[in-house]
Amino acid sequence: MSSQNSGGNPNGAKVISIETTPPKLDQLKEMVNNPSEIDGATIELGIPPFLLNLGLAVATDLSFLNIGLGKAVYVPRQVTDRDGGRKSQYKLCKGETTQAGVYFSESGMMLRFVTRVTGDTKNAKTGDIFMEQYRTREGRLIYEGTGVLQITDERKGIGQYELAQTNTPQYAVAAQPSVKVWIIWSAILIEVE
């Protein structure tokens, strides 16, 4: 399959599908002889655990990607300094990326990455450009879009942007614009229809 989809391809479910056994299962079995070794082994294999907050999960619709995906669940990675957590998107430095959460559909999952593209202030401000990328577990780029942040409530860390697809080679083609709203310094993500 080429690096780009031919526009409206309904095979997105297949592209983001995950195997019935994890890709590094055999390596992990070789390295682990008791439960206390699991964490270190996954870190050594480059598959460290994420601290996901299931209590902040939201229903979402991925049909804007135009690849045959519909209803999904978005689970954010916890904003925290603890291992497995992440930095608030508002606190990213110019050029810094965070793995912000995971989209789960009935057929698979995509990892959501957020990068601050512009802005030299300590905290993001209205007018800063951000980029989102959705990738498979193996790293294949499914979608990339950018948007200009508009902070609507600085005191509560609420802001939004409308993502527009970039020209970078990616699986999704002709994705529709999508408004993403960050709530409580990006701990929660909702979408506006």
Give the beta-strand count.
10
Low-confidence parts lasting 5 or more residues at pLDDT below 50?
1-6
Compute the gyration radius: what is it? 17 Å
What is the makeup of the main sheet? 10 strands, antiparallel
Please state the average pLDDT score: 91
Query: What's the N-to-C terminus distance?
Result: 31 Å
Shape by Cα distribution: globular
Describe this structure in words.
The chain is mainly beta. It has three helices and ten strands, in the order αααββββββββββ. It has helices at 12-15, 25-31, 38-44, and strands at residues 58-61, 71-76, 97-104, 109-116, 129-135, 141-148, 150-153, 158-165, 178-183, 188-192. Strands 1, 2, 3, 4, 5, 6, 7, 8, 9 and 10 form a ten-stranded antiparallel β-sheet that branches. A hairpin with a 5-residue loop joins strand 5 (129-135) and strand 6. It is globular, with a radius of gyration of 17 Å.
